[in-house]
Structures are given as structure tokens and as C-alpha cells.
């Protein structure tokens, strides 16, 4: 076709180009949608990817962490310190949360800290302590990996590997973690949309690892009175779009110890499959996130209260006792 644009005034040429470009973009979007039957727009134009989609797999995925099942009818509670700080701190906290009914122990050995001058975690020494208390209590361990070079090391100690909010879009890390066959706890990026979040999970599933648990941990908004804004609407949305289990972290989601119990109960009420919470034997002396950590008594009380909320929504707090404890 002969291009007659040179006959038109300049401002009209500019408009034609803009419209043409928009059409190309629309066509590309249409093509992408058509190549993937699960990529249909939902709720105002966002789309969901394939393997994580409930359309691909209508039945809920149940992730089994050494006998503790997440995604079924029981609600699983993960508790423990933000960071492994010492033998005494970890062991006292672990024994107590187990006594109160926690099913899985958390504790960071490699910590993503906003300041390079803050405590960075004990590294492999922290992993070793987690290994010892895992043997004693029988509680499965979840701990974070931040670097592709550490996936193998962390996987050799952990029962479940955590990929934190800051690394949700670290694609090499997602792929590497996907290649190891351990369950993965993938936290929502603090600035990630639901679609971006599901795409990140898709990276892991694409490696053949379907043992992925999603975790809403608060997003950044204009609000400054809380550390993050805990997006509880993400729970029903994620559960509707995906077959993966969804848990909630009210500790990072609020950054406020006193608010954690209320939001934990709310999370159970809106359908979360579990909770991950920071608990410390001496929160006021914690090296990391003490202001949002429950003390041991507060956690015990919350566990009792959660039972009532769970039963009100037709579920139970998992009472699964680890097999070799
Ligand atoms: C954590 O769970 O210790 C943590 C750092 O969480 P997030 O990645 O959600 O900030
Ligand atoms: Mn923390």
C-alpha cells in the first residue's frame, strides 16, 4: 500500500501513529490471550497464568511438609522468631510455640535487612541450630533463601524454603528453588499485583515443583500508621484464581504486635489456609522485628482464640503432631 501520509498536516500524522500503535498493542494482547485459554481477562482486565490457575486444576493443591498438610480443611500455624539469634532464643521459643500448638517452626538464618548495618542472620550456624531443634521437637522448619548459590545448602536443612517479599520477582531464584523438590513458601512482593504474584508462582511450577504455598504479607500503600497494609481481600481472590494454598503473615502485614491477633483471626475468617507469625521469647530484646513479635503467652492465648474462629467458619486449627516428636 502506498503511504500517503506526506499529504496530511503534521499533527494528523502524529494522531494516526498513536492510533496505529495502540492497535498493534491491542492485537498483541489479544494474541497472548488466545494462545492461553487460562489467560482470559478477569475482574477488569487482569489475567491469570496457566499452571497456577484453578481453571487448569480445579481441586485444591495440598502441600505436605513432612506430614503437615497445608491447603486442606485444617488451618496450619507456622510460628517462631524472625531471625535465629542464639541457641537459647531459638530453642526456648520453639519449645513454647510447639506446646501452644504450632505445626511448623519459622526462623531466618539468612536475613534480608533494609540496612546493611543491621543483624544479617547467623547464616549456616543458624541453619545448624534449626536442624537441632527440628530433631528435638519434630517440628518441620521453614527458613528463607535469598541467593541462588545458597538454595542447595538451605534445602539440605529446611523442610520448606521461603522466598521473601523482596525476592518475589527474582526470577533466577524462583527457577532455582523450583528445581529443588522442597515445598516453597512464596511471599507476595510488597509492590506486586495479584497477577504479578501468580506469575512469580508460575515460574516455580514451570520447573516441575507444584509444592508452592502463597503468603499475603502486606503491601505498600500510602498508609504509614502500619508497616504494611495487610491485603485480606487477596485471600479470597487468590483462592478463587488459583488452586495453591494461601496463608497470611499478620506480623509483617501490620508491623504491630498488638494488632497481630486481630488480623490473624480476620485472616482465618476470610478463608486463609494458615498463618505465619513471629514469636519471640523476649520480643523487647530481639535483634530483628521485636516490635511485631508476639511473646510466648500472647501466642498461646491467640492459639486458643483461633480455634473459636476456625470452628465458626467450619474448619479446625491443625492438631497434627509431628511424627517423631
Ligand atoms: C520474614 O518472614 O522474615 C520476612 C523477611 O518477610 P517478608 O519477606 O515478607 O518481608
Ligand atoms: Mn521479620
What does this structure look like?
- The chain is of the alpha/beta class and 325 residues long.
- It folds into 2 domains: 9-38; 63-317, TIM Barrel, CATH 3.20.20.
- Helices cover 38% and strands 14% of the residues.
- Strands 5-6-7-8-9-10-11-12 form an 8-stranded parallel β-barrel, surrounded by 7 helices.
- Helix 2 (87-100) packs parallel to helix 3 (124-137), helix 5 packs across helix 6 and helix 9 runs parallel beside helix 10 (296-312).
- It binds phosphoenolpyruvate and manganese (II) ion.
- Residues 82, 252, 278, 288-289 line the site of manganese (II) ion (MN).
Provide a quick synopsis of the model.
With 325 residues, this protein is an alpha/beta fold. The protein has helices at 10-35, 87-100, 124-137, 151-157, 171-179, 194-206, 234-241, 250-254, 260-269, 296-312; strands at residues 41-42, 46-47, 63-65, 68-70, 74-80, 104-106, 141-144, 160-163, 184-187, 212-216, 246-248, 274-278, 316-317. Helices cover 38% and strands 14% of the residues.
Number of strands: 13
Q: What's the average pLDDT?
A: 90
What do we call the CATH topology of the largest domain? TIM Barrel
Distance between the termini: 78 Å
Shape: globular
Strands of the widest sheet, in order across it, are 5-6-7-8-9-10-11-12
Instruction: Specify the CATH architecture of the largest domain.
Output: Alpha-Beta Barrel
H/E element sequence: HEEEEEHEHEHEHEHEHEHHEHE
Report the C-alpha radius of gyration, rounded: 22 Å
Helix and strand composition category: alpha/beta
